[in-house]
Design brief:
Elements (H helix, E strand, L loop, with lengths): L4 H21 L17 E7 L4 E7 L3 E3 L10 E7 L9 E12 L12 E8 L15 E3 L5 E3 L4 E6 L4 E7 L9 E13 L8 E2 L3
Parallel strand pairs: 9-12
Antiparallel strand pairs: 1-2, 2-11, 3-11, 4-10, 5-8, 5-9, 5-11, 6-7, 6-10
């Protein structure tokens, strides 16, 4: 017996609905996972080269957790030793030209209040860690109200790419005494390769 036109139309409609349901329940590509970084250790976030020749290394500290008032030089410290400006191991001459820091929350993206920033130092890594180094003056020091430093155009700090850098950041808390706090510090180091220069830079050195 042949099916009636009404039954045929109902069957086709049911098949169409079922197919649509299968398509909706089985997407072709799952959504990309959100970027996540462990809060227990520092991380290199990004190395970027711009068409102008300027390069940046962006890093984020471990999460600093603390409670109660912490005056200057008494807050928790976030060390980030052994930073390599380039991913390559081949030694070459680089010129450090600036540094910028911002306070962020544990996800390393959302901004946090800058009031919990004490200071940051970036200096050359000691040639050996088995012997206490002599007093080293930092290449740059950042303090509250001065979270960015950039050398004048045409000047730079010469550094071999094989010589790594030590970055140290410290938190403070002068105002919030009624709850625990968590903060990280994101730092961007600016530099150029000597091989990319179109004009020589004036070296600044101690």
């Amino acid at each position: 017996m042949l099916a009636s036109p009404r039954l045929a139309r109902a069957t086709l409609a049911g098949l169409a609905i079922a197919a649509a349901g299968i398509a909706l329940a089985d997407p072709a590509e799952p959504p990309a996972p959100a970027r996540r970084f462990s809060s227990d250790s520092p991380h290199v976030l990004e190395r970027r080269a711009e068409p102008s020749g300027r390069r940046t290394l962006e890093v984020v500290s471990q999460t600093l957790s603390f409670a109660g008032l912490k005056p200057s030089m008494n807050g928790p410290v976030a060390p980030h030793p052994g930073l390599a400006l380039l991913a390559s191991d081949a030694p070459e001459l680089l010129w450090v030209t600036g540094i910028r820091l911002e306070s962020v929350q544990s996800d390393a993206d959302a901004p946090a209040s800058p009031e919990f920033f004490s200071h940051a130092n970036i200096e050359l890594e000691p040639l050996t860690r088995s012997v206490p180094p002599a007093i080293e003056w930092p290449l740059f020091t950042l303090v509250p109200g001065r979270q960015e430093a950039r050398l004048p155009e045409g000047f730079g700090l010469p550094v071999l790419s094989s010589r790594r850098l030590d970055l140290t950041t410290m938190a403070l808390n002068l105002n919030v005494a009624d709850r625990p706090l968590r903060v990280r510090f994101k730092t961007r180091i600016e530099f150029v390769r000597d091989a990319d220069l179109t004009a020589p830079l004036v070296p600044l050195a101690r």
